[in-house]
Amino acid sequence: MSVGGKPWLQTHWDWHVALNFLTGGSGSGLLLVAVLGALAGQSLAAPTWVGLLLVAGGLAQVSLHLGRPLRGLNVLLNPHTSWMTREAIVAGPLLALAGLAALLDSTVIGLLVGLLAAAFLYCQARILKEARGIPAWREPRIVPLVITTGLAEGLALYLLIAVAAGRNEALLPVGVALLAALVVRFTAWRRYRQALQGHAPLAALAVLDRAEGPFAGAGHVAPVLLLLVAVWVPSAQGPLVTMAALAALLAGWGVKFAIVTRASYNQGFAITHTPARGAGTGGIGDQPGW
Amino acid sequence: MTRYVMVADLERCVGCQTCTAACKHTNATAPGVQWRKVLDMEVGTYPDVRRAFVPVGCMHCADPPCMHVCPSNATKQRADGLVTIDYDLCIGCTYCAVACPYQARYMIEKPNQAYTKGRMRHELQREESERRGVAQKCTFCVDRIDYGLANGLTPGIDPAATPACVNACIASALQFGDIEDPQSNVSQLLASHKHFRMHEELGTEPGFYYLWEDQ
C-alpha cells in the first residue's frame, strides 16, 4: 500500500478565506452593476453601500485568517508578482471611493468605483489561478468563471435591493441582464469543468461533479424559469424575482465555496519511473489519485 | 554561478526515514511538520508490483511559485538557488502553501509540544517561536551551507557544510552539491544515471533530482 503519495484536501485556506471569495466577488460585482444602474438613471447609494459592506466583510474575514495579523500591511510589499498584493492595493481606494460615491450618490465617483471593482474581481480570480499547488484552482478557465459568477451575483443582489426598495422599473432590464449573465456563467462553468478533466485529482473532480447538479438546477434552470414566469405574471413579479435572485446568488456562493474548500485537493506526488532494484531494471512510474 | 541541488538515488533509498529524523532533530520542527520525509509508493498491480521510497520536501525551484505569490516578499530566492523565508516579514497568509505543488510548506500556530502533559526539555530549549504563525519549509540547512562557505568548506562534501538529511542518510542515497560545477558530486551522478524531477510539466524547474537507473 502506498503511503503519503495521494493528493489530499488542503486545509490552509478554510471557510474564512472562502468567504472573501464569496462576499468579495458578489460585492465587487454589485458595485459594478450599481454604476451601470447609475448610468441608466438609478440611484447608486443603496447598492454601493451593500457592495462596500460585502467587500469589506470579506477582507475582514480573510485578515482574521492571517497567522500574524499585526503585520497585515506587509501584504502590500509585492505588487510586482503577487495578485494578493494587487487585490489589497485595489481594495483601499475601492472602499474609500465606494463610501464617498454612496454618500454623495455621485455617478462620476461611481465610475471610478466601477473600474476598481472590476479590477478587484479580476484580482480575486487571478489569486486562485496562481495557486499552482491546487489543480482545481490553477486551471486558467477559473478566471472567467469567477468573474462571471461575481457579475451574476452582483446582478442578483441588485435585483433584491430593487425589489426591497420598490423600484419596479428596474426589474425588467436587470432581470434580462441576469438571464444573460446566467447563460454566460453556466457556459464558463462547463468550459472550466471540461478543461479540468484529466488535469485534476479524481477526488477533486468528484466534488465538482457533485456540485454541478445543484449549481445547474437551483442556480440556473430555476432562476431562468422564475424570471420568465415573472414577465408573464406581473402581479407576482416581486416574489418571483426575489426567489430567482436568491437562487442565482446562493448557487454562485455554493459553487465557489465548493471550489475553495472541497475541491481543493493538492497536487500529491508522482514519480515518472520506479527504480531498478538489484539486478533488475527500472519500471513505470505512478501518480496516485489521478 | 552556483546552484545548489539535491539528488535522491531511488535505487539506494530504503525508506528508513533517518533523513526525516535528522531534519527534525537539527531544525527542531514541531509535531506534524516534516520538512523532509520519505514516501512509500507502491506501483502496479499483482504480480507486477514495484515499490519506491521517495524523499520529498522543498524542491528549491528555479521558478518558485511560492515566491511569485508571496504578498509580503518574505519568500525570496538567493543567487545560489536556495528559496528562503524571512520569518519577520511573513504575514502567515499561507498563499505560498497552496501555490507549492510539492506540499512542502507548513504553518503552525501552537508551540512545539508533542504530548499533552507539558513540554519536554528539548521542546523548551528549541522553541523557535519566530516560526509560529508564519510559513515554514526546508531550508536545505542554509545556515550550515553559509557556515561552511565562510570557513572554506564545500557544501555537499564537507559534513559541516552539508544539509543534515544528506549527512544522516545511511545509504548515501541523498547527495547535495552545485549542479553548475561539472565536477561536483551531483553533476557526476546526474551524468551517470537516468533521472527525473517531480512534476516537471508544471515548469517550476525543481532543484531536486531523482536517479532511477544507471545510464
Give the strand content of chain A.
under 5%
What best-fitting shape of chain A do the alpha-carbon axes yield? globular
Low-confidence stretches of chain B: none
Q: How are the strands of the largest sheet of chain B arranged? A: 6-1-8-7
Query: What CATH architecture of chain B would you give?
Result: 2-Layer Sandwich
Measured by residues with Cβ under 8 Å of the partner chain's Cβ, the largest interface is: A-B, 53 and 56 residues
Range of strand content of chain B: 15-25%
Which descriptor suits the 3D outline of chain B?
Answer: globular
Task: Throw out a few tags for this protein.
heterodimer; A: 290 residues; mainly alpha; Formate dehydrogenase/DMSO reductase fold; 2 domains; two-stranded antiparallel ribbon; 69% helix; globular; B: 215 residues; alpha+beta; Alpha-Beta Plaits; four-stranded mixed β-sheet; 7 helices; 22% helix
